[in-house]
Amino acid sequence: MQSIESSATPATAVSFWRRLKDLLGLIRFSHTVFALPFALLAAVLAWRDYPFEIRHLIGIVLCMVFARSAAMAFNRLIDRNIDAENPRTEGRHIPAGILSIRIVVAFTSVCVVGFVLSTLLFLPNVWPVILSLPVLGFLLGYSYTKRFTAFCHYWLSAALMLSPIAAWIAITGTLSWTPVLLAAVIFFWVGGFDIIYATQDQEFDQSEKLHSIPAKVGTRNALIIAFLSHVLTMVCLFGLWWVAGLGTVFLVGVILVSGLLIYEHWIISPDDMSRVGVAFFNINALISVGLFALGAADILVTNFFSKT
């Protein structure tokens, strides 16, 4: 009897870790890198004038992870039938039968509860708790947008731009131009690269009467819109550098990011979209992590020289 129980325990553990790995793959956990650094950058900027508290840092990380995980899992649930019909996405976890609807619903529910509970770490500031459900509603609402608007890309970017605003409010209980400009950077940046990513599904979206900018205006025009969106990203980045009173280190970062955005559009064209994956993940991950690192470094350097 003991041998049966002892053999069942490792098997159960293996099954648990396999399921967890599948769930992390479902929500593309690695893509958390797109929004989390901006929330942390907003926090670092806020901590210049407000005391640092470790619970606030933990709260920001937990809220970001739970909110994004809930939104992604919900999206996979809502889009499971569409994904099953699309050759590019038919191998995703739900249509491929890797994960059941019941498990994904349970995972989404856990993430929703985890997000709301994580906002309690910011008490006595009640704003994160008050805004938790409206924010979640907006994040989850994105999953329906391809059914009625070509501007679904900017609903997604608006959802992600809430991260620095939410982090700032959670720490300060107020709002100012610094997080608003950082949010504007995310809005135009994410909207632009999501348009690029959506070009892969242009023909499928048109055939299924789904809405997207590439489906509406074609790949060539969509890439022009994406480029203009990224030009506005650069403008907002320089505005953030100026309004936030950041220094040379961050300015160098702004210039480098502007170059990366231009390079992102240089490596793709309507006649050659083979490097969309590179443009989507590699370059954009470098942009988000790089801006946070250089922003934090700029503040450290400024503080060092102000004390010497």
From TrEMBL:
InterPro entries: Polyprenyltransferase_UbiA-li, Prenyltransferase, UbiA_prenyltransferase, UbiA_sf
Primary enzyme class: transferase
Topology of this chain in the membrane: Multi-pass membrane protein
Main location: membrane
Pfam families on file: UbiA
Compartments where located: Membrane
Keyword tags: Cell inner membrane, Cell membrane, Membrane, Transferase, Transmembrane, Transmembrane helix, Ubiquinone biosynthesis
TM stretches of this protein: 26-48, 54-78, 99-120, 126-144, 151-171, 177-200, 221-243, 249-268, 280-305
Statement: the UniProt record of this protein carries the keyword Transmembrane helix: yes
GO process annotations (BP): ubiquinone biosynthetic process
Cofactor(s) listed: Mg(2+)
Molecular function as annotated in GO: 4-hydroxybenzoate polyprenyltransferase activity
EC number annotated for this UniProt entry: 2.5.1.39
Gene Ontology CC terms: plasma membrane
Record family assignment: Belongs to the UbiA prenyltransferase family.
Alphabetized PANTHER family for the sequence: 4-HYDROXYBENZOATE POLYPRENYLTRANSFERASE, MITOCHONDRIAL, PRENYLTRANSFERASES
Protein name, UniProt field: 4-hydroxybenzoate polyprenyltransferase
Gene: ubiA
